[in-house]
């Protein structure tokens, strides 16, 4: 019997994927919320060390095939040693010792893009080896919404109920009862827009409007239909979720118009979305003379720089960041008193976060790289000292807010990504981009190694990407080079959705110019300028 053609296998895989998602939605919407969200969170906080030890014993020390099992063995650390270390020195101090002894995971190791080698020994591993076998999930999420090769993170019903409890605390901290809520999020395959629209009614709210980038019918028609189907399925179960309202290309004015109209009607408005689109909404309000004052923006997906904050606040809007990643979930959320910088309370109930000093390979500077350890028994992945190529400063939180009173007494500020693209809220792994720039584009368009460089920088109203191509490559048409680049981006994990979002916002351009170099004279294929503080010059 001959094997099925690849396109039929892909169709079957997608049918199974979305059937599981529908079943997951059914189970979640049919399960009652936690009656006392604050009590649930406090219980996890009081048992964070016990949760860590119990999960580590069941998932890692009892399973020799788990990659962490070998790391602990090579470090000479038994479970009894771990237990004694946590009891004597505390969780975070013990994790710092384990990191120095080789119990950690880099981002590329987690993604399967680099071999795990400790004490000269190769440790076989796949990304799926780090999944939590104690709980299974039906609703998968993927980095930047791609359904191609990469990390699927299954979210169990228990996990979703706990996240819902945390969201209720956030609503209480920001006084969101009675607010007109809108989401400015992508459609499927990303679930970041669908999930809150389906969940809101369970907390006594309703998302009034879901604004989305739909993309062209050629590459996004089936995702539009799938999104519509999931919304209607959820509504049959009582969700009362809105269908997406698709934005015109490079136009965020419809969102600003809607906010201005609702404000004129006397409604307080709250907007959830990625940071660059939030800036574009505020800029559209300023450009068109629309009054959206007193609107609340809750944003994530990339760094909230001073420049971005300034544009948003000039429109009379309050903006607060939250910090999350697909693989580990929510890291933290700003409180109402965090009105400057890019700073959030750390959700200590679900994560232990430490940092270590290292050189960032894509910025050529020293950073405080963050290391994450999962604590919830039902976390999708069981990770210890996992690095996600993000940096930040960890310190005590000194504000008097609901988060602090509950026990989120630690904050991380100056959050930034140093090993991946995060523009427009889309995350692409840096090593994938480097291969595209150094190997794929020279083969497709001409030129040689070092002729192509992708620069991520802060634009006037959003994060902007520029593909710099050396004149040596002999490229006659920058527009054709851009088309080729976006076509190749779509082949990457996370690339389909990223290309759609970047194209809609006109967030990428191509220039024929020599690549930039760092202050030390290095020419990096992926050049992350962040807020633009780092000085650069053309080679």
Description:
- Strand 19 and strand 20 form a beta hairpin.
- Helix 3 runs antiparallel to helix 5 and helix 12 packs parallel to helix 13.
- The C terminus is likely disordered.
- The chain has 3 domains: 199 residues, no CATH class; 146 residues, Rossmann fold (3-Layer(aba) Sandwich); 114 residues, GMP Synthetase, Chain A, domain 3 (2-Layer Sandwich).
- The chain contains 17 helices and 24 strands.
- It is 38% helix and 23% strand.
- It has a 12-stranded mixed beta sheet. Strands 21-20-19-23 form a 4-stranded mixed beta sheet.
- By secondary structure, it is α/β, with parallel strands linked by helices.
Give structural attributes:
single chain, 539 residues, Rossmann fold, 3 domains, twelve-stranded mixed sheet, four-stranded mixed sheet, globular
Topology of helices and strands:
Blueprint: H1 6-29, H2 37-46, H3 48-61, H4 67-75, H5 79-89, H6 91-100, H7 107-110, E1 116-118, E2 121-123, E3 139-142, E4 152-155, H8 157-174, E5 180-184, H9 194-199, E6 207-212, H10 217-236, E7 244-246, H11 253-264, E8 269-274, H12 275-288, E9 296-300, H13 306-314, E10 318-325, E11 329-333, E12 343-346, E13 351-360, E14 365-374, E15 386-396, H14 402-406, E16 410-417, E17 420-421, E18 428-429, H15 430-445, E19 452-458, E20 463-469, H16 478-489, H17 495-504, E21 508-512, E22 516-517, E23 526-528, E24 537-538
Parallel strand pairs: 5-6, 5-8, 6-7, 8-9, 9-10, 19-23, 20-21
Antiparallel strand pairs: 1-2, 3-4, 10-11, 11-12, 12-16, 13-14, 14-15, 15-16, 17-18, 19-20, 22-24
Helix pairs in contact: 1-10, 2-8, 3-5, 5-6, 11-12, 12-13, 15-16, 16-17
């Amino acid at each position: 019997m001959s094997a099925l053609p690849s396109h039929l296998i892909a169709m079957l895989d997608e049918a199974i994927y979305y059937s599981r998602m529908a079943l997951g939605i059914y189970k979640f919407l049919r399960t009652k919320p936690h009656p006392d969200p604050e009590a649930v969170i406090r219980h996890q906080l009081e048992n964070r060390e016990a949760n860590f030890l119990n999960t580590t014993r069941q998932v890692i020390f009892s399973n020799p095939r788990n990659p962490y099992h070998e790391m602990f063995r090579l470090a000479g650390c038994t479970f009894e040693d771990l237990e004694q270390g946590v009891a004597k020195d505390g969780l975070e101090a013990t994790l710092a010792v384990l990191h120095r002894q080789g119990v950690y995971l880099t981002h590329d190791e987690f993604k399967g893009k680099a071999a795990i080698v400790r004490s000269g020994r190769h440790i076989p591993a796949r990304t799926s080896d780090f999944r939590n076998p104690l709980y299974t999930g039906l609703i998968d999420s993927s980095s930047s919404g791609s359904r191609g090769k990469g990390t699927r993170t299954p979210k169990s019903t228990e996990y979703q109920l706990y996240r819902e409890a945390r969201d209720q605390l956030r609503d209480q901290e920001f006084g969101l009862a009675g607010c007109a809520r809108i989401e400015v999020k992508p459609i499927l395959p990303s679930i970041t827009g669908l999930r809150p629209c389906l969940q809101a009614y369970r907390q006594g709210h309703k998302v009034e409007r879901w604004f989305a980038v739909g993309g062209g019918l050629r590459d996004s028609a089936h995702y539009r239909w799938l999104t519509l189907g999931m919304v209607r399925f959820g509504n049959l179960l009582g969700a009362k979720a809105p269908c997406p309202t698709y934005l015109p290309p490079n136009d965020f004015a419809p969102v600003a118009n809607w906010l201005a109209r609702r404000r004129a009607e006397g409604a307080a408005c709250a907007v959830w979305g990625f940071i660059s689109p939030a800036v574009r909404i505020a800029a559209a309000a300023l450009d068109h003379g629309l009054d959206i004052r007193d609107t609340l923006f809750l944003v994530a997906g990339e760094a909230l720089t001073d420049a971005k904050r300034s544009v948003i606040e000039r429109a009379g809007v309050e903006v607060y960041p939250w910090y999350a990643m697909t693989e580990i979930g929510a890291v933290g959320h700003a409180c109402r008193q965090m009105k400057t910088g890019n700073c959030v309370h750390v959700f200590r109930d679900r994560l232990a976060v430490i940092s270590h000093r290292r050189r960032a390979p894509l910025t050529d500077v020293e950073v405080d790289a963050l290391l994450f350890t999962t604590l919830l028994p039902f976390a999708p992945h069981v990770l210890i000292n996992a690095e996600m190529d993000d940096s930040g400063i960890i310190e005590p939180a000194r504000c008097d807010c609901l988060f602090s009173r509950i026990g989120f007494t630690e904050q991380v500020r100056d959050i930034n990504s140093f090993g991946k693209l995060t523009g427009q809220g889309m995350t692409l792994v840096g090593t994938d981009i480097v291969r595209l720039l150094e190997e794929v584009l020279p083969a497709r368009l001409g030129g040689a190694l070092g002729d192509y460089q992708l620069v991520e920088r802060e634009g006037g109203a959003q994060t902007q990407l520029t593909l710099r191509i050396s004149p040596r490559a002999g490229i006659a048409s920058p527009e054709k080079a851009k088309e080729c680049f976006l076509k190749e981006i779509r082949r990457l994990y996370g690339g389909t959705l990223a290309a759609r979002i970047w194209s809609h916002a006109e967030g990428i351009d191509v220039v024929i110019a020599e690549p930039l170099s760092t202050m030390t004279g290095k020419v990096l294929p992926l050049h992350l300028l962040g807020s633009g503080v780092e000085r650069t010059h053309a080679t």
